[in-house]
Structures are given as structure tokens and as C-alpha cells.
Design goal:
Distance between the termini: 54 Å
Oligomer: single chain
Number of strands: 0
């Protein structure tokens, strides 16, 4: 299937699940009630939602930039931010968020960052975020156990499955980072399989390139393990990124005029929700996110604010990312095209000058 058709199919899945969610949401509440609740949202809290989401992206880019700079590679803040936006955009339009990291590696490679080093930066960023998600989530679950149980009801198994998935992801990253020989064997096996399936035309060249990237990756991770302070900084950035993202629901709660629960209560439920729905294989975990949100926050947002809160939350944590990401990608494409055109014009002008000189 071609790239264009895959994107179209993914967007159909995204908006198809949105349509289904809206259909069932408006079975119990009228459109006018929901629209009234949304329109009554305090503008200041809407702006704070955007600030927290941008803070999430900034922390993401800081993690990547800090790692690269400590490895001796410099990337401007603007380009680092672009790489983070691109990663979020492609993750949100591909099943299981599988498209984000490869595109980020590609864009970093455009700035002469070796593939292994770029991969290491993304692995460390992922590991830091996921580890802090597990640690902070566990602390909050223990500290607010009765509160979580009250809102989760008899569906604890959903949260347990999410924890298993998250722990497995973190463990896989650790094993990938430490077990060099098995990773090299798997790389060779993938190349052979790809050659047999005719996906890889030059197996020797591809294997050498991939093994070199694996070696660079392990060297980068080894450098990090010898610098515990760097790892601590990455974990602190991961914690800040996590809390920025999880605070969006609190802004929506306050913006709708509700005051019963504190910030820590909303953040606790949001982390539990994130853990419970993150492993859904659809783009942006569409459908699963909305369903789990209704399960966790059904008692938090009363009456007409329930559907309004879900729509606002989903917009600021997902659809805003799609719109913002698409806009940034278009602007980057236009800028890149302009830069390439200017480069070609300068090259042509230089050739003409050389020609005149020879005359």
C-alpha cells in the first residue's frame, strides 16, 4: 500500500472513530447542552491548555537536544522543536504510534546526526518518559488508591494491562540497550528475511549499515551510563513533560467552572487513563482513549459537562496536535523548497560566473 493511501486510511480511522464516539455521546445529552458547556469554557483556561501542550513539546525537544549536545552534536532549538512536533504528528496518524520515531531519525539525519546517535536520543527520551510514567503513576495509585478505585469501579484489569504493557516497554528498552550480541543477531536475521521477501535488494550493504548504526547506538547508551547526572536530568525532563501533558485535564475541569477536585486528583486519574489506553493499536488510540476517559472521569464531570470535557480534552491532547503538526509540516516543506530553489539558483549563478571567467 502506498504512503498516500496509508495516510488516507489512517485519517479515515481517526475521524471514523470520532464520528462513532460523537454518535454514542449525544445519545444521552443534547447537542445544545454540550455546545453550551463548551462555549462557557473560560478563555484563560483554554490558553493554559495550549501552554501546557506546548510545554510538553518543549520538554520533548529539550530531552533530544540535551542528549545530542552531550554527545557532541548541536541542533538549534527551533529545529529540535520541529523534530518533536514531527514525531508527535506522525505518531498520531499511524497505528500504535509507529511512524513518529522513524521520521524523527530521518529529520535528525538531515542535520548530519548519525542514525545510531539519533536513535539513542529517542530511546533515552522514550525510556525517561515511560519510566517516570510508571514511577509517578505507582506513587499516585498508592497514595490515592481509594479515590482511583472509586472512579475505576470493577475495571481494574484495564489499568493492570496498561501497567504490564508499560513495564514491558521499559524493560525492552533496557534489554535493547544492554544486550549488544542478541541485537546484532536479530539485525542480521531481519536483513536476511527482508532480502528473501525482496524488500532489501543489497543485503550485505544494508547489514553493514544497520550493524554500524547498532554499534553507534550502543556506544551512545554506554556514554550515558557513565554519566549518571545526565540520566537524572533526562528523568527530570521526562517528569516535567509528563506533568505538563497530564495537567491539561485540570485546566479543562477548572475552565468548565468545577472546583470539587484538586489538581493532584485530576492528574492521578489522567495518568491512570493514559496507562490504560496507551496500548490500543489504532492511530492515536482513537476510540480506546474516549472510552477509558468516560470510565475514569464519568463522576468527575457531571451532567452536560461530561461530553464537553471529553471533547475538549481529546481536542487539546490529540486533534490540536494533528492540526498544529500539519501546519508545521507544511511550513517546513515550503521553507525547505524555498531553500533548495535558492541553492539551485546560487549554483547556476556560480556556474555562469565561472563560464564568463573562462571566456
Amino acid at each position: 500500500m502506498k504512503s498516500g493511501k496509508k495516510k488516507l486510511l489512517n485519517f479515515l480511522l481517526i475521524f471514523g472513530t470520532l464520528g462513532i464516539v460523537l454518535f454514542f455521546s449525544f445519545q444521552n445529552q443534547s447537542f445544545e447542552e454540550v455546545l453550551g458547556a463548551v462555549s462557557a469554557m473560560d478563555l484563560r483556561w483554554i490558553l493554559l491548555c495550549i501552554v501546557f501542550y506546548l510545554g510538553f513539546l518543549v520538554a520533548d525537544s529539550l530531552s533530544i537536544q540535551y542528549f545530542l549536545r552531550r554527545q557532541g552534536y548541536r541542533v538549534t532549538w527551533g529545529y529540535g522543536f520541529f523534530v518533536s512536533v514531527a514525531g508527535q504528528y506522525y505518531s498520531n496518524i499511524t497505528p500504535g504510534a509507529t511512524g513518529g520515531q522513524p521520521m524523527q531519525v530521518y529529520y535528525l539525519h538531515q542535520r548530519y546526526i548519525p542514525t545510531g546517535v539519533a536513535t539513542s536520543a529517542l530511546v533515552v527520551r522514550f525510556f525517561s518518559f515511560q519510566l517516570m510514567l510508571s514511577v509517578i503513576g505507582t506513587v499516585l495509585w498508592i497514595g490515592y488508591g481509594p479515590f482511583v478505585a472509586e472512579h475505576l469501579g470493577g475495571h481494574r484489569w484495564i489499568l493492570i494491562m496498561g501497567y504490564v504493557y508499560n513495564v514491558a516497554s521499559v524493560s525492552a528498552v533496557v534489554m535493547l540497550s544492554l544486550w549488544r550480541t542478541p541485537v546484532r543477531k536479530v539485525t542480521r536475521l531481519v536483513v536476511k528475511l527482508g532480502h528473501r521477501l525482496r524488500f532489501i535488494r543489497h543485503p550485505e550493504e544494508t547489514e553493514a549499515k544497520w550493524l554500524n548504526a547498532v554499534e553507534t547506538f550502543h556506544e551512545s547508551i554506554a556514554i550515558l551510563t557513565r554519566r549518571p547526572l545526565d540520566l537524572l536530568v533526562q528523568l527530570l525532563i521526562g517528569a516535567g513533560q509528563l506533568l505538563c501533558y497530564m495537567s491539561i485535564i485540570w485546566c479543562i475541569y477548572r475552565g468548565l467552572g468545577l472546583r470539587t477536585y484538586r489538581w493532584v486528583h485530576l492528574v492521578t486519574l489522567h495518568i491512570m487513563e493514559y496507562l490504560s489506553a496507551a496500548y490500543a493499536p489504532l492511530p492515536g488510540a482513537s476510540g480506546a482513549q474516549e472510552g477509558v476517559f468516560s470510565l475514569y472521569f464519568g463522576r468527575v464531570f457531571p451532567g452536560s459537562t461530561n461530553v464537553a470535557a471529553m471533547l475538549l480534552w481529546r481536542f487539546f491532547t490529540y486533534y490540536f496536535s494533528l492540526v498544529f503538526g500539519a501546519l508545521v509540516m507544511v511550513l517546513y516543506g515550503l521553507h525547505s523548497g524555498k531553500s533548495l530553489k535558492e541553492s539551485v539558483q546560487m549554483t547556476s549563478a556560480g556556474e555562469e560566473e565561472i563560464g564568463r571567467g573562462e571566456e
